[in-house]
Amino acid sequence: MTSTSRAETVLVTGATGFIGSHTWVDLLAAGHRVVGVDNFVNSSPRVLDRLRKVVDGDIDFVRLDVRDRAALGDVFRRWKIDSVIHFAALKAVGESVDIPLEYYDTNVNATLGLVRVMAEHGVRRLVFSSSCAIYGAADKVPIAEDTPARPTNPYARTKWMCEQILADLCARDPSWHVTSLRYFNPAGAHESGLLGEDPRGVPNNVMPYLAQVAVARRPELSIFGDDYPTPDGTGVRDYIHVVDLAEGHRLALDHLDDQAGHRVINLGTGAGTSVRELLAAFSAACARDLPSRVVARRPGDVAALVADAALARTALGWSARRDVADMCRDAWEFQRLNPGGYDDEEEPDELVGQP
Ligand SMILES: NC(=O)c1ccc[n+]([C@@H]2O[C@H](COP(=O)([O-])OP(=O)(O)OC[C@H]3O[C@@H](n4cnc5c(N)ncnc54)[C@H](O)[C@@H]3O)[C@@H](O)[C@H]2O)c1
Asked: Per the database record, which ranges form the NAD-dependent epimerase/dehydratase domain (predicted)?
């Protein structure tokens, strides 16, 4: 494990999203320059003002759709980009079943376009957002990277296809350095309470759902099944603090040159938490017993998804430093300060009138 922590100019796609915004902060703190791009399809322009507050400075941002190769090309002409972290994607499993073509276009086509534009500009260093969703219902937990992929829905298939495209590209041209990070369940928020998870519509993930129950935007948490073969019968997941995840991206970037070609690394804590345990932890964080009700299992849900986190430790020197109590404390602080999410505020002046 060697590391090049030289300052780079990093293009971050999906930069105003949940994980992108936290990674942006981490990269700037480490001395990198960041050019962020996003089309706000699942994020708020108000994140830009929050970012300026957190980093106490100006930021470089371009509003664009990552499927627009010409617009991406302009970014590469305007800045001398050294590497790319590609977060931009659609990520709701249920929605991906309803509008699969939109998912293949945004997640797969955009990735194809991005690597083409990168190649045209001589940039061959990429960190790609993959997901533990590609493992499907793995036979063995904890799940190591060599577990065969068995994606069970269009969203997971888009991530698996992108990984395969990147692997094929790297096999043909070893001047590429690509790391696909398979994250488990990102949760939490920036400790300032200025940045956090603010999904549009009904949250798909349990943590933002709980946070909205805590501010009475939702009446109760639905627990999807309590008859799984887990200690308390509810689903077990490997929650990872978004700030730890952001650090993992920075370290993946620093270690891109360690190995030519494509490699795959899990980012998880290696520890599982059940829905009931998470409910108790969030109730403790907000000092109120949050209401819940057991309902039927959701199709496609699996009993347990927990990472084997060993490779991230040896390859990147990374391991999670924050636990579920920290995630609940920070997610609660963000929700408490922003009960209606980012959209409680007025539109920033610079974006009024933009397409
Ligand atoms: N949050 C999770 O549970 C999780 C788990 C595993 C993997 N991931 C992956 O991590 C990445 C980031 O996830 P997140 O949780 O921050 O999601 P997010 O929705 O908050 O962020 C994604 C960002 O990409 C932007 N985007 C989407 N389509 C775009 C397009 N065509 N052009 C420009 N911008 C576009 C959205 O506006 C959003 O700001 C995604 O690739 C996601 O699939 C997320």
From this structure: 10-268
